[in-house]
Inverse folding.
């Protein structure tokens, strides 16, 4: 990128190289975080990158956690005007804060709410002009709340994810999801988490520092890139680890100990 | 939403925030948020101003000690002092009885200042390294306590709240004991919250509401074994809160939830606190802390609401504080009533490594 400098996260995801195609096209990215270390800043960064002026990526943001105003304010400080992008049909916001699938006892199964949601997503993509259809990024914030909306039926949520996954192969969409690792790590069989990890091409984990708490380093990121088939870097399963510090208008990424 | 200006570039001028006119008891926060007071001055300071309107505060109880009740009492009293409508739900059969235990603001400071100063001085002596965090992050914090409409009062737990406050503002009391159906409670909350709708402009806020839900998953409640329903309720409450000018404080005993669900609840919270009892007559602690005999418990701040921002306040979490009472009168303590709550900073790093780390 000539105009702006790329950071360690961009490099890890392959977003630093100037190509006409969005580097994450057709890939599934799973972000995991915990109570101590929130990973939402990664979503914000990816939205910003996707809506960069020189790309034609369209973002479909499926929000279960926060209303539009929250993301709008944050992205504005990061230099991205979501309201304008919304008008320009580059940013579609699906407000699902109140989506609740009907109970199992009723005639409709919990899946009907999610089926309708998938229908909306598909409809939106079909409604895009031909040129944009190949450049769609779907972001889901966040999966643990989708489970709540489905009354705990993780299987239905997984089915929904698999359907969204078909869009990555059919349309070269990018699928980005956020979930909370510490919810599942305390269960005997963290099947849901393992399934999403298996589905993902890129796994980004936000964790607290192993050494404890600090004010100027907020946590560490581990990026696992399965099958990094980009350009000259042909190494499979590339793992990167670095630290980060979240600020209002940017996030600093740096290797441990190299912060000045 | 009002018509948005469309611009070609991704940059837009920073929204010039005309200071909204706020009713007493409310304070402007960063990023277009508004605070109301928790009822505990030091807690407001730690949280960067208070509880954010539209947020859900969750308090993890200690099953062996009722300290969460102190937080609730101060929160509820503060609301009534500021004429903010209150909805209170508890597992007891007659929640109204709890209102009689709400504290009144300390009337005169004559009996306290000297002791308080000494405590403060002693407290600051130990915790000197934390002073810098407060200085930087709380430019709004002033010491204007003579103002009639104080943002946050010092409460005297010995004195019950005057009846006029309870009569002036009808407190909506709900018993959770026999309720099997959470949707009824949700509707009730929804109706209550409809009194404080939030518009995007936030030009003026005339009134804000408070919801206090005590021991939400207590076994007395009919729905307590319906884990997904409870979680669904919390999620729905949170989404209604987002479009209301109100704060909800929900306490729960984490030991009654499975670890996985406990984590889910923690993630749901915007602001997450926990309280823990400290043992009486612990010699090590007594040596470590001055004023140990005044302390009743440990308060941990696990996370603070991040609404409209991706940034945490600049301290590492969790923060631990000792809560206790500052009394001018040593003899009074023997009667085990608490005169007021004040938070005393301590060498948390030393203690959090030990057995007091919850």
């Amino acid at each position: 990128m000539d105009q702006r400098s790329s950071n360690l996260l961009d490099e890890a995801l392959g977003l630093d190289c100037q190509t006409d195609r969005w580097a994450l096209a057709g890939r599934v990215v799973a972000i995991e975080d915990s109570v101590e270390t929130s990973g939402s800043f990664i979503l914000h960064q990816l939205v910003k990158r996707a809506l960069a002026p020189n790309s034609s990526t369209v973002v479909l943001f499926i929000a279960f956690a926060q209303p539009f105003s929250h993301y709008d304010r944050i992205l504005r400080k990061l230099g991205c005007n979501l309201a304008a992008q919304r008008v320009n049909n580059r940013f579609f916001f699906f407000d699902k804060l109140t989506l609740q699938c009907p109970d199992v006892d009723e005639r409709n199964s919990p899946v009907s709410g999610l089926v309708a949601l998938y229908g909306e997503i598909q409809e939106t993509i079909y409604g895009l002009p031909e040129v944009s259809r190949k450049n769609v990024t779907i972001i889901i914030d966040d999966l643990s709340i989708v489970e709540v909306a489905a009354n705990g039926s993780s299987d239905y949520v997984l089915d929904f994810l698999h359907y969204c996954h078909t869009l990555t192969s059919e349309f070269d969409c990018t699928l980005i999801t956020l979930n909370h690792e510490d919810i599942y790590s305390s269960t005997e069989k963290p099947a849901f988490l393992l399934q999403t990890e298996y589905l993902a091409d890129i796994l980004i984990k936000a964790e607290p520092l192993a050494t404890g708490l600090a004010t100027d380093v907020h946590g560490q990121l581990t990026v696992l890139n399965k099958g990094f088939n980009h350009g000259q870097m042909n190494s499979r399963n590339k793992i990167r680890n670095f630290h980060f510090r979240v600020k209002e208008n940017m996030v600093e990424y740096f290797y441990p100990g190299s912060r000045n | 939403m009002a018509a948005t200006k469309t611009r070609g570039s991704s940059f837009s001028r920073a929204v010039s925030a005309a200071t909204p006119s706020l009713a007493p008891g409310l304070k402007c926060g960063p990023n277009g948020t508004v605070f109301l007071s928790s009822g505990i001055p030091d807690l407001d300071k730690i949280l960067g101003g208070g509880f954010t309107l539209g947020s859900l505060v969750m308090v993890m109880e200690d099953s062996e000690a009722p300290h969460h009740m102190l937080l609730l009492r101060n929160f509820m009293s503060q609301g009534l002092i500021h004429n903010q409508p209150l909805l209170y739900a508890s597992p007891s059969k007659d929640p109204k009885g709890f209102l009689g235990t709400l504290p009144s603001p300390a009337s005169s400071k004559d009996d306290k200042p000297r002791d308080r100063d000494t405590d403060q001085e002693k407290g600051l002596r130990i915790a000197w390294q934390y002073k810098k965090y407060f200085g930087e992050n709380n430019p709004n914090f002033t010491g204007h306590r003579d103002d009639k409409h104080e943002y946050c009062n010092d409460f005297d737990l010995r004195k019950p709240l005057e009846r006029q406050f309870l009569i002036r503002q009808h407190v909506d009391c709900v018993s959770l004991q026999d309720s099997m159906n959470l949707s009824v409670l949700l509707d009730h909350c929804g109706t209550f919250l409809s009194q404080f709708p939030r518009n995007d402009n936030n030009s003026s806020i005339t009134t804000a509401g408070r919801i206090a839900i005590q021991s939400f998953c207590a076994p007395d409640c009919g729905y307590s074994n319906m884990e997904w329903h409870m979680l669904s309720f919390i999620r729905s409450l949170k989404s209604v809160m987002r479009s209301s000018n109100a704060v909800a404080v929900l306490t729960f005993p984490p030991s009654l939830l499975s670890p996985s669900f406990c984590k889910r609840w923690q993630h749901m919270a915007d602001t997450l606190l926990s309280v823990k009892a400290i043992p009486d007559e612990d010699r090590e602690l007594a040596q470590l802390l001055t004023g140990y005999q005044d302390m009743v418990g440990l308060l941990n701040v696990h996370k603070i609401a991040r609404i409209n921002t991706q940034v945490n306040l600049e301290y590492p979490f969790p923060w631990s504080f000792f809560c206790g009472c500052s009394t001018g009168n040593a003899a009074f303590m023997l009667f085990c009533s608490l005169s007021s709550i004040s938070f005393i900073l301590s060498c948390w790093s030393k203690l959090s490594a030990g057995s007091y780390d919850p």
